[in-house]
Structures are given as C-alpha cells and as structure tokens.
Design goal:
mainly alpha, 3-stranded mixed beta sheet, 7 helices, elongated, ThiF/MoeB/HesA, SUMO activating enzyme activity
Amino acid sequence: MDTIEVSNLNRQFLFRQSHVGQSKAKQFSVVLNGLDNLDARRHVNRLCLAAEVPLIESGTTGFLGQVTVHVKGKTECYECQPKPTPKSYPVCTITNTPSKFVHCVVWAKDLLFAKLFGDRNQDNDLNVRSSDVDGSKTTENVFELSPDEDPISYGQRIYDHVFGYNIELALANEETWRNRRKPKAIHIKDVLSEVSLQQNGALENCTNEGTSISAMSTLDLKNPQDVWSLEDN
C-alpha cells in the first residue's frame, strides 16, 4: 500500500516525522482513496479488485464532487472508464521523487522560484523540509537574505540548502529509494572545487600550447553556434 512521505506531514494531521516510510494502513475492510495521480489510483484499484475490498474514490483532481464507489462484481471498476491525461503533477512527486525533466522544471518554477521571489508569507511544500534546518534559522527566514550577507554568500547558502541539505534529508528515508534511483547531494564546496580544477587544468593546457581560454571551454560547453542532436539534448 501507499507509504507516508515527508510532504504528507503538512497536509495530514494524523502523521508525524517518525511515521515517514511506514504504510498508511496495516489492515482494512474498505479503502477510501485520496491519491493525487492516476497511476497510484489504478494500482490501488487493482489491489482492491484482487482482495475483493470495496473502493471509494474521492476524485481529488476535480471540484465537482466526483466521488465514486467501486465494488467488485456489482459496479464498474475505477479503470473501466478511460480517464483524461492529467496536466499537472503531484506535489509529492516533484518534491520527493522526481523522475522526469518536467518534474524538475515544475519544482523550480512553482516552488523554488516562488519561495525566492514570490510572497514571503506564502507557504508551499519547501517549508516542510526548511522547518528542520539546524541552528537558529527558522522556516520563515531560510530563504531570506540576512542583513550581513552578501549576494554571493546568499546564493551559496541557498544552493547548499536546496541541493545539499534537502537531498540528504530525502536520502534519510531509505524505504523511499528501495526501488528507485537515489539522488546525490551536491554541496557548493564540491562544485567550486571541481570548477576550480577544470579551470586550472584548462589554463595549464593553454599556457603550454600558447592558446587562449574561454568560459565555455572551461565548463566543457559546446560552441553556441552548434546545432544539437537529440543525443546532445
């Protein structure tokens, strides 16, 4: 069955941090669906059919009271009628287990960008992990520029928080990654060290060969005039 994710904690009052990774139910005589994607609903529908347990689908993707009841042998199943392809993505997926490029784009646009440049008082799912930051920083000021902080330091701190700390926090839940490819935490110091090594190596080669160095070659980027193939993309 479905397991408890970190992003569930700010929307479901029954769960706590200690419950992350556990199943949402151990036994049941009826299932009430509150899922946010079609694949999960289809999966639960098939489990209910196999176990001969009634399923009540809450229809959380719409606003028209789309609750339906599915009982094996008495009513049509959830998949008996084709469902339209969704045009949005589950918050749990884009924050915890993105698997497509579009998930990362939606996360950056709707969550991270909004947190950095939008309404400071507007909560979103980035707050779930931000509230666990070590030290004196609180949920409200993690993404704010400190009075004594220069823009470069601020950018490095946000980078560490988003691509370092948040990834390490996600990796702490080993159950989530049992059948998924694990992400890798990348801290700013590691990025700067790698770029520095590339620059030093490129500079040394240019010195030995008597040629010039460019930013694009340093970062191993292709000529901007090149036409990329599907493989390059």
